[in-house]
Design goal:
By secondary structure, this protein is α+β, with helices and mostly antiparallel strands. It is 58% helix and 9% strand.
């Protein structure tokens, strides 16, 4: 609580707010006892100094899982912590769960309190089998708070102490009590389940009874659509072994008045609506209809529930009744009674002919009266109504009216008083008749519900020998409505009783915590509510006693009862008389004041059954109805002892409290976050009211009366060590250091325990205020230094700027002077260049004129020479073109003819081949026929393939010949072209000679004229030849394209033929394999039908331990010399006995694994099933040893099977062994040997897991157990020693792995199996570390991430040293924990986006896993934050989408304990062993049974 001492300006506090209950802000001003606060929403408010509370600014961003860890244990702190965790989908928070004692070698918990907030959405990852397995046997407080943890600790306490336990689940309607109870029973069934008897176990029957009880005991209320209107206490009984042996269900205070009175918008009990929506034949059978037509249902306008089908629920309820064990006959009677109650409510009355009499109002009322009588199956008038003479007279006067409905009418409208002299009948007025009708309905329904509970208990069965049980109480919470009647009074009375029990329990927990820490607690006051209980139940002056007294007087009314209360309790501080009402009264409960309306208290309190109703129902022809109202004993019928609901309920409550007091209690407080019943909505005021009603705030008050703040030494020093720096610098013990800090600050009243510092209320805030002062002073010093630094920087910058400005000004003046000088020099230079330019221009003009004259003269002469040479060259070119055209035309005609001939011939051949291929493709379909025709068709296909090969060979030869011819023709044409070219060259030379020899002038004139004519004729010929050439080219291109198409088609056909050949070969091979498999299966099946019989005495065979049998015998060549007795391999039972005796000895198991795997490899590669294995085996007298059996099995094989491919001359391995046919003994041994290899492998793997599991546990616990020493030694050499001590656990794991690897190597276990073992071991390490990271918040810290990262580095180094031959892919199995640790130790997490986290940092982790790590992360080293709120929101959206898609959302990993290899995998992995040149041992040489293993000698 805030005080003037610890609240200063700048403090962050909580202040009351009418809209949000509490709002946080910063103190900006203090005026005496009033403070001005700047709230977080930007407003300024004024509050009293005594009404504000300090806010913990160093609270974890994700909240704390235990309320006792809060620095400030007050209402706003608790509310903020719940809100923070609820926003992260952490719906469970524990309170005072650290209170436990250590007794002997186990922990005994005195009780625990769990707060469960209803998430209004499915969170399947919190309740699956993996989560149950994680909480099974886990020490309490190690994992996050969970309802499974409460169930587990109660079960463990019951088993170890032999004392019964109870779990009290409470909360208002809609808070999730029923679902929490289901989860508790499911977990208890998971822990103590037994083998099913008659198809169902006890726990299954208890869970299956819920739908039946919900149908008849639950209804829709304002706050919940499925509210339990009764209390339920489930006793689960256990035997001595801790297995469930029986169960019983106790119910309390069914709300009977709801049958007749329903407020809008609530509903009556579910069963009425279910029956109205039953199948049509059921509805017609019971004469029912729409619920709106029945008085007991139409008082409210709510007839249906959103998202719920009453028709389907009716069928589900019938199925649940079948499962519970209710017969079809009883079910029919139950629903007949329910229908009768509905019809009974529709019977209306009006005044009769006589005074104060009543009769059915109309025909509709008579119809329902008759239907009710038919459904109840009443008999004639009971004898208590009339004497025999009166009955006879009645029958004579009214022979047609003697019906069932008349009896029911009289029972409702009349009362009979039997005296010794006569029977007196008294009529009832309509109002009294309605009261009588409603009383009958309530009584019948109450008896029906009690019968259902008794039937369920009888079906489940109880264990009379059970001495321990776990009780789960599902009780209604504190209720306070606008209108509160007798039901709310009883409910609140129950909660007062439970609150007293709760207060005593919390006080007891506080005492045990103080005793454990050895501190003084004698002056702590205990808050009790006994005065309220005395007001309600005290005799003779309590409210219940006065109510019973008023009910016994016929003329008493609720006014007289209220006046009696006013007079009796006018001075009671807990009883208040309202000012505006004469009949209401108010009781000040622990949760607040509740005003009760006493109008119906008397009617609802009466519990006696009207004798007329009792006799009428007892006379029913239906045994079920009559059984609900058995005849009363004469003693009880004669006695007129008064019975009331209040007295009976008080007795039941007393029995319940006795049961709870005899058990160890555990509390689950269910909280409803909002009245909209929607997720992600947290209403502060609503939550505070529920915490107050649930007693949580009262528990806080009790805790605050003692030492509400308690901190471990290292946390206290870490937080407040700066208040006394000399303490940290000195080598003080943690306990002494804490005491010195407190003494230095002058605090009194605190206590120093064994492991914690206990502070009184307000002392934590005072220490925080002192700490804030120290930090503020330090901040002021830092600010002064920083401001000095900034002023110095500004001065230096100003001086530097001034100097720079001066230099710029001087530079500017110099630039101007330089510019003037430069201009003068430039003017002189310009004048000089202009004069030079003008002179140059004159010279250039003169020079250009001379050049033009010379050029014109020279060009005239050149043109004449050029014209003459051009004409001569054109004549020569025309002659050459004409001669070339003649040669080219001849060549093209020849080529075109040859191509046409070739194309037509090849097309004809291709068509023939195409027809043949189509026929062949149709014939290949015959391969799909039966097995007996397959061989013939294979031969036909082979023949056809050979034919096609020959055709293809002929075609290729024809192509080669044609290509040769075509090349020859081309060669000839090329030769002709070359000859033509040579002739053209010769002609050109002759022409040149003629030109040179001819006279120039005359020839020039003649040549010009003749050449012009020739050029024109040749040009026309050239054009015609060009056109013909183009047409020939087009034809050639077309023929060439057709040729290419034909060639491609033939190539495709060739490829298809090759594919067909491959398919034929594959079919042949698959056929052969299938035949071999069928033969093997037939042989093995026949072997399994027979039993191996060993007749001859067993022979001894060498064993040894250092190497496998085959390897040692081959390499050593002699018997083992280590003194060990040889081992028998003939009988598999011998191996099993050996394994059973040495199942924990890894050395022997490795030896057997090496031997068995090597022998299995040889059997796999040398044995094949015999074709005659299907025949019955003959029994022969022979050696019973393994190799003796193999000799008998291999009797058909040659005597000299060589192991080394002698014919090839190359030494081979095991693969070169010849496979021999085996009979059933060898095959049977092979199967058994395979099973033993897998068993030995599993035993070795599990032994290693057992060995490293304690070390892994130490690695998980190490950060928490050693964090205090790390904090303490942060400035000393002790830090290095502590880190070395932490890493020693990882080094222990590495040492175990290394020793194990050496053992496997020494026994020559195949590397394949070694890799598989270590792969599964590393997967186990990954699962354990990763799951502990997700379930323990203290593991999701920065320092723990560094610690685990160092340990993973040790494992990586071991994998590197072990090499890939033995480690394999073991390191890759740690991918989950590696990526999670990488996320923990990475810096600047708030800057990371979801895409970077999910794709770059942690691609293997799911969104659920990332979300849990992000929300649980806390930096205990640097104080940094986790990822941003936007990333968290995006994760929640993705998780919601995944849950809507019905995808499994489990975030825990499973450990794979399967056998990860097969015999074929083992066979393929083995390296080949060259044993051809190795001399066999003498024992093998001398024994003729091993002759097949010896090499053949020349």
């Amino acid at each position: 609580m805030g005080t003037p001492v610890n609240i200063i300006v700048g403090s962050y506090v909580w202040a009351e707010n009418p809209d949000q209950a509490w709002i946080d802000g910063e103190v900006v001003k203090i005026n005496g006892q009033e403070v001005e606060i700047q709230t977080s929403d930007g407003k300024k408010i004024t509050a009293k100094l005594s009404s504000i509370y300090p806010k913990d600014m160093e609270a974890p961003a994700a909240g704390v899982d235990d309320m006792t860890k809060l620095s400030y244990l007050h209402e706003p702190g608790v509310l903020q912590n719940l809100k923070t965790r609820y926003e992260l989908n952490e719906i469970y928070v524990s309170f005072l769960n650290s209170s436990h004692n250590c007794k002997k070698d186990y922990v005994t918990y005195t009780g625990n309190i769990l707060i469960a907030i209803n998430p209004f959405q499915r969170l399947p990852q919190l309740y699956d089998a993996q989560m149950m397995q994680q909480y099974k046997g886990a020490p309490f407080g190690e994992l996050s708070p969970h309802v499974f943890a409460i169930a587990d600790v109660s079960y463990r306490a019951m088993i170890k102490e032999g004392k019964s336990n109870s779990i009290l689940v409470s909360g208002e309607s809609g808070a999730g009590k029923t679902e929490t109870t289901k989860m508790l029973m499911q977990y208890l069934a998971f822990l103590g389940g037994r083998v099913a008897t008659e198809g169902r176990t006890v726990e299954q029957q208890v869970l299956e009874s819920n739908p039946v009880l919900e149908a008849f005991g639950n209804a829709k209320t304002v706050r919940n659509n499925n509210s339990s209107r009764f209390g339920k206490f489930v006793e689960i009984q256990f035997d001595k072994k801790g297995r469930i042996s029986g169960a019983a269900i106790r119910t309390y205070l069914l709300e009977r008045s709801r049958v007749c009175q329903v407020n809008d918008p609530e509903r009556n009990y579910h069963c009425f609506y279910l029956l109205c929506n039953a199948p049509q034949e059921e509805v017609e059978k019971y004469k029912l209809g729409n619920p709106k037509t029945f008085h007991y249902l139409n008082q409210s306008k709510c007839y249906e529930l959103v998202g719920v089908s009453d028709a389907k629920e009716y069928l589900a309820t019938r199925r649940a009744m079948d499962v519970v064990g209710i017969s079809a006959k009883d079910q029919e009677a139950i629903f007949r009674v329910v229908a009768a109650i509905l019809h009974l409510g529709n019977i209306q009355f009006s005044k009769g002919k006589e005074a104060d009499s009543s009769v059915p109002k109309d025909d509709q009322a008579k119809f329902h009266l008759k239907t009710t009588a038919e459904l109840f199956m009443y008999d004639f008038y009971p004898k208590s109504y009339y004497t025999t003479i009166q009955i006879q007279e009645k029958y004579k006067t009214e022979p047609g009216g003697w019906t069932y409905c008349k009896a029911l009418e009289d029972a409702l409208c009349k009362r009979v008083m039997i005296t010794p002299e006569e029977v007196i009948k008294r009529s009832l007025d309509p109002v009294s008749a309605v009261i009588s009708r409603d009383g009958l309905a309530k009584t019948v329904y109450s008896r029906l519900f009690d019968w259902l509970v008794d039937k369920i208990n009888n079906s489940i069965g109880q264990d009379p020998n059970s001495k321990s049980l776990i009780g789960v109480l599902d009780i209604y919470g504190f209720e306070s409505f606008k209108s509160n009647s007798f039901e709310q009074f009883c409910i609140n009375f129950t909660n007062e009783k439970l609150q007293q029990h709760f207060n005593q329990h919390v006080f007891k927990m506080e005492q045990e915590e103080y005793t454990k820490e050895q501190i003084d607690w004698s002056y702590i006051e205990f808050v009790d509510n006994q005065d309220v209980l005395d007001l309600i139940e005290k005799k003779p002056g309590g409210i219940v006693a006065l109510l019973d007294e008023a009910c016994m007087f016929p003329k008493s009314t609720h006014e007289t009862f209220s006046n009696k209360l006013y007079q009796t309790f006018k001075t009671h501080k807990r009883f208040i008389k309202p000012k505006l009402s004469r009949t209401d009264f108010t009781v000040a409960h622990y949760a607040g004041e509740v005003q009760y309306q006493s109008e119906q208290f008397l009617d609802k309190n009466k519990d006696y059954v009207v004798p007329e109703h009792q006799d009428l129902l007892n006379s029913s022809k239906c045994s079920f109805v009559a059984g609900l109202f058995p005849p009363l004993p004469e003693e009880s019928s004669k006695s007129s002892k008064f019975s009331s609901i209040g007295s009976r309920f008080k007795l039941q409550l007393q029995q319940l409290m006795e049961t709870l007091n005899s058990t160890e209690p555990h509390y689950v407080r269910c909280v409803k976050p909002n009245n909209l019943l929607k997720p992600a909505i947290f209403e502060n005021i609503n939550i505070m009211q529920q915490l107050r009603c649930g007693g949580v705030l009262e528990a806080i008050r009790i805790s605050c009366a003692g030492y509400p703040t308690r901190r471990p030494f290292f946390e206290f020093i870490n937080r407040f060590g700066l208040l006394a720096p000399e303490v940290l610098e000195g080598s003080y013990d943690e306990k002494v250091a804490c005491a010195k800090i407190m003494e230095k600050k002058g605090l009194k009243g605190f206590q120093i325990g064994k492991t914690k510092v206990f502070l009184r209320a307000g002392q934590m805030a005072e220490l925080d205020a002192r700490r804030a002062e120290v930090l503020n002073n330090a901040a002021k010093i830092i600010q002064g230094r920083v401001r000095t630094h900034y002023a110095r920087q500004r001065f230096l910058a100003l001086r530097k700027g001034t100097i720079l400005l001066q230099s710029l000004c001087r530079g500017r003046l110099a630039c101007k002077q330089y510019e003037q000088l430069r201009r003068q020099a430039a003017a002189v230079k310009i004048q000089k260049h202009i004069r030079r330019y003008e002179a140059r221009q004159k010279y250039n003009k003169l020079h250009l004129s001379a050049l033009v004259l010379q050029t014109g003269a020279r060009s005239v002469a050149a043109r004449k020479e050029f014209r003459f040479r051009k004409q001569t060259k054109a004549a020569i070119k025309i002659q050459a073109r004409w001669r070339c055209h003649k040669a080219s035309s001849y060549y093209k005609r020849l080529k075109r003819g040859s191509i046409v001939a070739q194309t037509r011939w090849r097309g004809r051949i291709a068509k023939k081949e195409l027809r043949k291929l189509k026929m062949a493709s149709r014939e290949t379909g015959a391969l799909k026929e039966a097995k007996d025709k397959l061989e013939k068709k294979v031969e036909e296909l082979t023949w056809r393939i050979q034919l096609e090969k020959r055709l293809r060979t002929d075609l290729e030869e024809a192509k080669a010949q044609e290509a040769t011819k075509f090349q020859n023709q081309i060669q000839e044409l090329q030769n002709k072209i070359e000859e033509t070219n040579t002739e053209l060259v010769k002609e050109r030379e002759n022409v040149k000679k003629v030109v040179e020899e001819a006279p120039p002038v005359v020839q020039e004139t003649q040549v010009v004229v003749e050449d012009t004519q020739k050029i024109e004729s040749l040009t026309s010929e050239v054009e015609s030849l060009t056109a013909s050439l183009e047409s020939e080219k087009q034809r050639a291109c077309e023929f060439e394209g057709k040729y290419n198409e034909a060639q491609q088609h033939s190539e495709e056909k060739g490829k298809k033929l090759e594919e067909m050949e491959k398919k034929v070969r594959l079919l042949q091979e698959s056929l052969t394999r299938q035949e071999e498999k069928i033969t093997n299966l037939e042989s093995e099946n026949q072997v399994l039908r027979q039993q191996a019989v060993s007749i001859a005495p067993p022979n001894k065979f060498l064993s040894g331990r250092s190497r496998s049998v085959i390897q040692r015998a081959v390499e050593a060549g002699h018997l083992p010399a280590d003194g060990r007795a040889p081992m028998e391999l003939s009988s598999p039972s011998m191996i099993q006995r050996e394994l059973a005796e040495t199942q924990d000895n890894n050395d022997i198991l490795a030896y057997w694994l090496s031997n068995a795997s090597t022998l299995l490899l040889l059997l796999q590669r040398t044995l094949k099933a015999s074709g005659a294995a299907g025949m019955a085996p003959q029994r022969r007298r022979s050696s019973a040893t393994l190799f003796g059996r193999m000799t008998q099995s291999f009797r058909g094989s040659p005597q000299g099977v060589n192991l080394a491919s002698i014919n090839g001359g190359v030494s081979g391995g095991v693969d070169t062994l010849r496979q021999v046919e085996a009979k059933y003994p060898a095959l049977l041994f092979k199967q058994q040997l395979t099973a033993y290899v897998e068993k030995i492998y599993g035993m070795i793997r599990d032994n290693l897991k057992k060995e490293i599991s304690p070390l892994l546990g130490l690695c998980i616990q190490a950060p928490r157990t050693s964090r205090a020493s790390l904090v303490k030694g942060a400035r000393s050499v002790a830090n290095t020693a502590a880190q070395q001590a932490l890493i020693a656990h990882w080094q222990g794991i590495v040492k175990s792995l290394g020793n194990f690897l050496n053992t496997l190597k020494e026994n020559h276990v195949p590397p394949f199996l070694v890799r598989k073992i270590f792969t599964q071991i590393f997967s186990f390490i990954n699962v354990q570390l990763f799951n502990s990271l997700l379930l323990r918040r203290e593991c999701c810290s920065f320092s723990n991430g560094e610690y685990v990262k160092a340990g993973l580095a040790e494992l990586e180094h071991w994998c590197y040293k072990a090499t890939d031959e033995y480690a394999g892919s073991a390191w890759d199995e740690l991918k989950h924990i590696r990526q999670a640790i990488g996320f923990l130790v990475i810096h600047q997490k708030p800057k990371k986006t979801l895409d970077e986290i999910s794709h770059d940092l942690c691609p293997v982790l799911s969104i659920q896993q990332l979300y849990r790590i992000s929300t649980m992360y806390w930096d205990d080293k640097y104080g940094t934050h986790s990822v941003s709120s936007d990333v968290i929101s995006n994760m929640r959206v993705l998780m919601t989408e995944d849950s809507n898609n019905a995808v499994s959302n489990s975030f825990l990993l499973d450990d794979d304990s399967s056998i990860p290899f097969s015999v074929d995998d083992l066979s393929k992995s083995m390296e080949q062993i060259d044993i051809a040149d190795i001399e066999p041992p003498p024992l093998i040489k001398e024994n003729s049974g091993f002759s097949f293993l010896l090499p053949i000698t020349d």
